[in-house]
Design brief:
By secondary structure, the chain is an all-alpha fold. It contains 6 helices and no strands.
């Protein structure tokens, strides 16, 4: 199946859903959302959550999908609380302010100890590595392998 065929299939599915949703919403004026969702589930074979999302989107912009929305966490988003972020930054500054660069594993152990002392769950080593890259000013995703 070519990429164009896949795109055509998605477009046809979207059009079918829009038509079914439009017909259902115009025919069921005054009906509760729950009954509309149940009918959508039967007619289109979608989950309850998808049906509610479709109804909400259709009511706001008149289509099943308003625009493509990004999937996943936004670039640069931070998931740690400010206290653990501060602990990581303090550990990085303490370790990397020396002229002789210590091992990364020593930094990870220090961050874990600091978190344990504060009764906080320690961050993953990948999180610490990302903060270290930010501190060093390196581009995101670049590794310090071999150096």
């Amino acid at each position: 199946m070519s990429a164009q065929t896949g795109e055509d299939d998605r477009s046809n599915t979207r059009k079918q859903r829009e038509e079914a949703l439009r017909e259902l919403l115009t025919a069921t004026v005054g009906k509760s959302s729950a009954s509309i969702v149940e009918e959508l589930k039967k007619d289109l074979g979608v989950s309850r959550a998808t049906a509610y999302r479709m109804v909400k989107t259709f009511r706001t912009c008149g289509a099943v999908t308003c625009a493509t929305r990004p999937v996943g966490r936004p670039k640069g988003a931070r998931g740690l609380d400010p206290l653990r972020e501060r602990l990581i930054q303090e550990a990085i500054k303490a370790h990397y302010s020396k002229t002789l660069r210590p091992k990364f594993s020593a930094l990870v152990q220090d961050v874990r100890k600091r978190c344990k002392d504060q009764l906080l769950p320690p961050p993953n080593w990948r999180t610490i590595r990302a903060r270290l890259r930010d501190f060093e000013g390196g581009p995101p995703g670049s590794g310090n392998r071999g150096s």
